[in-house]
Each structure stands twice: as C-alpha cells, then as structure tokens.
Amino acid sequence: MDEPEGIITAVCISACKGERKHAVAQVQCRAEYGIEGDAHAGPGPRQVSFLAAADIATMRTDTFEPQAGDFAENVIVDGPVLTGVRVGDGLEVVDGPCFEVTMIGKQCHDSGCAIRRATGTCIMPTRGVFGRVVTGGSLRPGQLLRRATGT
Known about the structure:
By secondary structure, the protein is mostly beta strands. It is built from 3 helices and 11 strands; from the N terminus they run βββββαβββααβββ.
C-alpha cells in the first residue's frame, strides 16, 4: 500500500515564539535541533510544526484571509500526508530532512495566539502536527513529503 503524500507549499520561520511566522524560500533543518533561524529551534519535542493547507482553508472568512505562517506553523502541506498521522510516525521529505511526529495539537499561550485574539479561534491546538528533526537537510516549497515507510 502506498504511503500518504503531500507537497510542501510554504516554509515559514520567526525570530520570536508566539508570533506569526513569515514565508521563506528555503531553510536548513538540523537533526535534534530544528530549523535554523526559527524561534522554536533547539532541543525538545516541538522543533518543527506542520499544518495541512486544507485545514488553513477552513479558517477563511469574509474578513480573514490566512497567509503562510499566520498560525505560527513552519510547514504547510497540500495533500493527505498529515491525515491520520500519529505520534511516533515518521515524515520524510524526498531529497530533504526526516522528522518524527512527537505531538498532535498543543495548548495555546495564556492569552491565545495572535490568530485566536484576532479571530476567536485557532487550528493549532487541534490540527497542528509537531515533530523533531531526525535527519537534517534543506526544506523548501515544492518538495514531496510522505509518511515514512514502515510507520
């Protein structure tokens, strides 16, 4: 059976935690560290965050058009690769880094993230997929992300 796949549509970073990230052309992922130049880099279970483009689309309203990085996500993926993903699953980028899923969802900051304060809701607590970098490499839009074989 084929493993689920998706195409990376955006890669985002920020200098500070708890703020929107901005899209960049490419980043370097380091094993057991995360994305170089991102506020969440360093040891721990939430080195990299992923969101499905379809989940972001559900947040569109007449007054809010989500942009890449608005939910403080690092990687936006178009396709079913994140559907049904579980803690412990592997995600691998063709010709790029490999990740281990460490968390599904997260608790929001005390006052809520910038999106929750602006719109009244946020998808990261329920739809965000978090992971650690197992194998480093370059990460950029257009790359194929797939569930690692054997997960």
